[in-house]
Amino acid sequence: RRGASLTDLAEKIGVDAASLVQVLFHLGEMVTATQSVSDETLEILGAELEYNIEVVSPEDEDRELLESFDVDFGEDLGDEDDLAARPPVVTVMGHVDHGKTKLLDAYRKSNVVSGEAGGITQKIGAYQVEANVDDQDRKITFIDTPGHEAFTAMRARGAKSTDIAVLVVAADDGVMPQTIEAMNHAIAAEVPVVVAVNKVDKPAADPTRVRGQLSEYGLVPEEYGGDTQFVDVSALTGQGLDELLEAIVLTADAALDLRANPDMPAQGVAIEAHLDKGRGAVATVLVHRGTLHIGDSIVAGSAHGRVRAMINDLGENITEAPPSMPVQVLGLTSVPGAGDNFLVVEDDRVARQIADKREARMRAAQQAKSSRRKTLDQLFEQ
Ligand code: GDP
Ligand code: MG
Predict the structure, then answer these.
(1) Gap between the Cα atoms of 283 and 276, Å rounded
(2) Which residue intervals define the domain Tr-type G in the entry (predicted)?
(3) Rg of the chain over CA atoms, in angstroms?
(4) CB within 5 A of ion ligand 2: which residues?
(5) Ligand 1 pocket, residue 102 CB under 6 Å
(6) Closest Cα partner for 193 from 157, 234, 222, 154?
(7) What is residue 172's three-state secondary structure?
(8) Residue 135, SS3?
(9) How does pLDDT run across 267-288, given as a tens digit for each residue?
(10) Residue 100 C-alpha to ligand 2 middle, in angstroms?
């Protein structure tokens, strides 16, 4: 396991840790028994002891755990013939105050059915918007939440939860540090970017400057011969909002093959979760593949349970959630973390076993961390 200590290793291979410290000392490395050692050190040690040591990442370890229950996560999308188009999942990113929230609110408002004038729409951290492109009704899923954190967490876990990033840049302010940071996140995750040049209603707006600035970073507008769509918008007046949806759909169609099999056990990612006084653990999940049904046994991170109810972005109770649909799920026994994957398994027993194993692993990792810290503290005390 990555970040393992000599004590961990000693336990695994049934020797005492002190002798491992000694072996390393003779190889010219000074390491204490509880200190975490690098992958290379572990491998050197393995070679010396004629053990074949393989360092596995937490992701691989989890994959192995799931495989031991005959569950495959994420890889298998099913037969080519069973795949159906699914809506793109979009994250909105950008520098603070450039208009991310305002833009999302503008879309959400248009999403609220008229008559619900009070706007008692549930905020579930993600929602779907209808776009009419080439006379076709197309859905787009927006992830709302504290966007960045969830995005970063999901990326760290290798869960691909966003198909497209909308980079919001205020036309009066131009490219700022967090604009670049957000852009780099998207590029690292290999997520195509659509640029929303916002606040074009402002007298000081200079959308051309934004295009020039981002071109220098490699995001070249289509009109300059590049392959990135730039759309001038105003979240305040509504200008360009339909064009932005169209650009998202066109980018999805041109660059991505967004299909999933709706007839498999559902899998996806938890994008937000909290404990509600009356309803217990409430998790907003995004379905990647398959369809989630009421009554399904699920495991999400180290939480598990059976889907008792599902609520969509309009606050309506629903009985099934197809690919790319965000839903609130009730029925989990505890609160999963943002970015944790979720999956439907055979029955409650399997769900509980997987959750328990993950929980135990998390606790062990935490303990290892705090004992390492203790060792360091002791070192400094001397
Ligand atoms: P965020 O930090 O990126 O979420 O930015 P907000 O959505 O909170 O917007 C920051 C400020 O800019 C708020 O005062 C908004 O009302 C304002 N704002 C956002 N979009 C526009 C726009 O298109 N035009 C103008 N004039 N103001 C906007
Ligand atoms: Mg905001």
Answers:
(1) 10
(2) 85-256
(3) 24
(4) 100-101
(5) yes
(6) 222
(7) coil
(8) coil
(9) 998 988 999 999 999 999 999 8
(10) 5
Extract the tokens encoding 374: 């203790």
pTM more than 0.90:
no
Enter the DSSP assignment of 81.
G
Residue owning the nearest CA to atom 18 of ligand 1: 99
> Are residues 324 and 289 in contact, defined by beta-carbon separation less than 8 angstroms?
no
The larger pLDDT score, comparing residue 105 to residue 42, is at: 105
Query: Could you give the CA distance from residue 328 to residue 155 in angstroms, rounded to a whole number?
Result: 22
Rounded distance, CA 353 to CA 359, Å? Answer: 10
- Picking from 95, 178, 86, 96, the residue whose alpha carbon sits closest to that of residue 139 is 86
Calculate how far, in angstroms, residue 97's C-alpha sits from the geometric centre of ligand 2: 7
Q: Which helix (H) or strand (E) holds 126?
A: strand 126-133
Q: pLDDT tens digit string along 60-77?
A: 788 888 888 888 776 666
CA of 105, closest atom in ligand 1: 7
Residue with tokens 């370890």: 61
- For the record, the structure tokens of 199 come out as 């606040």
Which residues of 171-233 form beta strands (DSSP E)?
A: 193-198, 230-232
Read off the DSSP letter of residue 225.
Answer: T
Distances (CA, A) of 4 to 8, 364, 378: 6, 11, 19
Q: Count of CB atoms within 10 A of residue 192's CB?
A: 20
Ligand 1, atom 11, residue with closest C-alpha: 97
d(CA 284, CA 378) in angstroms, rounded, equals 43
Q: Are 106 and 129 in contact (CB under 8 A)?
A: no
Distance 234 CA to ligand 1 centre (A): 9
Q: For ligand 1, is residue 198 a contact (CB within 6 Å)?
A: yes
Ligand 1 pocket check for 179: Cβ under 6 Å: no
How far apart, in whole angstroms, are the C-alpha atoms of residue 163 and residue 322? 16
Q: With the CA atoms of 295, 320, 101 and 227 taken in that order, what torsion angle do they form, in degrees rounded to the nearest 10?
A: 130
Taking a C-beta distance cutoff of 8 angstroms, is the pair 91, 167 a contact?
Answer: no
The length of the chain, given as a count of residues: 382
Atom 17, ligand 1: residue with shortest CA distance: 99
User: Is pLDDT at 112 greater than 60 in this prediction?
Assistant: no
Q: Cα separation of 151 and 145, whole Å? A: 9
